[in-house]
Specification:
By secondary structure, the chain is α/β, with parallel strands linked by helices. The protein has 20 helices and eleven strands. Strands 5-6-7-4-8 form a five-stranded parallel sheet, with helices on both faces. Strands 1-2 form a two-stranded antiparallel ribbon. The chain is globular. InterPro entries: P-loop_NTPase (IPR027417).
Length: 444
């Protein structure tokens, strides 16, 4: 056994159950009891038991406590070098070597199997457990570019590994003419679900104008899809926020989703349906809470990367670190925002920009975040009341109290964050940018 090993290891996903059994077999009643016995923090033990990276020496020591062979359960292809405490990003391999392994510009979902995806633990494990529950409803929400679709891809992959059938529908792919008509939209949903389940749509056999489209859709799912498929069906609706732009359709469809979830409590056949809804928080739609699916089921709120997670991700980009102070400055600039962090690491790994240049030019119209910032600016130009409220916060030296609805909308966009009952700028990046361009935004 090599006690002097360095770097990081994690338990392979298919070995997690073996590890949990070993915990019980060795007489540990909880993670806390194992942590106390092994003299590690509860966080480290939790990381180990959920497949999150821990230092190799720690990994080996916990394995000894559990009478496990660390080499048999470790994901050996996941070795990382522990980040020294005084380093700033510089490239170690040659540029040509790095270009062969780097992904395209980080835009959109991170593909399955990509080394540049950072697991969201313990959230991912919690969602996996929810998906196994009969009649489950999981709600994944966050502002744009926080990694919602990347997470969804991995949850659907997990469902397939369990032998479940999956249906994945992205509402960005729906024609606006269909999305604005409830009957057409529900027929679209049913037809696409049937095709992904390799069934003939047969919509007209179940659609009854006298019953209406919502009842027809419900009957179709219950009597055709759920009856035809023996395995549980995971129905994922990505970009559900697209329907928010059609308030009347949203007011009919969202309560319908909730009714399917409620049906599982009384009708066993509906327990085969597991719902995952994914939506951006950037559009505010007032709905009656007792009819909305957004206050039932399991809420999965994506968070920002921690400093440790940014260090870990940087190493997957083959970056080493010479001065952690600069990394902390990047965190202060973008707050661990997943897409903004990925963008910085992408350019650093290609040696197209230095950390100092990122820190000084990030908020400029030609900086690496120009597209992200312009997207927010375009929204604010259409909503002067929001722009004016944002300017109050960005210009203030202390937290500001805003109208609750305005504060909610701006926080949901990721532009602000709560500080008690007041709000402050979400990131330094936003404060710099909007102070520079505010003269171009109409507040009338």
């Amino acid at each position: 056994m090599r006690d002097s090993i360095s770097g990081y290891l994690r338990v392979q996903q298919h070995c997690l159950n073996q590890v949990k059994l070993a915990v019980k077999k060795q007489g540990f009643s909880s993670q806390r009891s194992l942590a106390q016995e092994a003299e590690f923090s509860l966080a480290i033990v939790s990381n180990f038991l959920t497949g999150k990276p821990v230092e190799q020496a720690t990994f080996a020591q916990i394995c000894r406590r559990l009478s496990l062979d660390w080499q048999e359960i470790a994901a050996l292809n996941f070795q990382l070098t522990a980040p020294p405490q005084d380093k700033i990003p510089v490239n170690s391999p040659s540029k040509s070597e790095k270009l062969d392994t780097l992904p395209p510009y980080p835009n959109g979902a991170v593909p399955l199997g990509s080394p540049f995806y950072l697991e969201r633990l313990p959230l991912e494990e919690q969602i996996r457990q929810e998906i196994k529950k009969p009649g489950a409803l999981v709600r994944i929400k966050a502002p744009k570019e926080m990694g919602k679709t990347s997470l969804l891809l991995r949850m659907l992959d997990f469902a397939k590994q369990q032998g479940y059938r999956t249906v994945s529908l992205n509402l960005e792919q729906v024609d606006q003419a269909i999305l604005s008509d409830l009957n057409q939209f529900l027929r679209w949903l049913c037809a696409n679900a049937a095709r992904q389940l390799q069934l003939k749509p047969q919509l007209d056999e179940y659609w009854d104008e006298d019953l209406g489209s919502k009842i027809s859709c419900t009957v179709y799912i219950q009597d055709y899809l759920l009856e035809s498929i023996t395995a549980p069906i995971v129905l994922a609706l990505d970009e559900l926020n697209q329907i928010f732009e059609h308030p009347q359709v949203a007011k009919d469809f969202l309560p319908l989703l909730r009714s399917w979830y409620e049906e599982s409590k009384t009708l066993p056949i509906w327990q085969k349906l597991r719902l995952i809804v994914v939506h951006s928080t950037e559009i505010y739609v007032p709905l009656q809470l007792n009819q909305s699916p957004f206050n039932v089921g399991f809420p999965a709120q994506l968070s920002h990367f921690s400093l440790e997670e940014v260090l870990q991700l940087a190493q997957r980009y083959q970056l080493t670190w010479e001065n952690q102070e600069k990394v902390q400055q990047l965190m202060e600039l973008v707050g661990g925002h997943p897409a903004l962090v990925q963008t910085a690491l992408y350019y650093l790994s290609r040696e197209e920009i230095t950390m100092t240049q990122i820190l000084t030019s990030a908020a400029s119209v030609t900086g690496i975040y120009a597209h992200h910032l312009r997207r927010h600016w375009a929204v604010l130009e259409q909503q002067p009341e929001l722009a004016k409220a944002l300017d109050r916060v960005m210009s203030a030296m202390e937290p500001v109290q805003l109208d609750p609805i305005l504060a909610y909308k701006l926080s949901s966009m990721g532009l602000l964050k709560q500080s008690g009952d007041k709000v402050v700028p979400g990131y330094e990046l936003y404060r710099r940018y909007f102070l520079e361009v505010k003269s171009s935004i109409s507040y009338q």
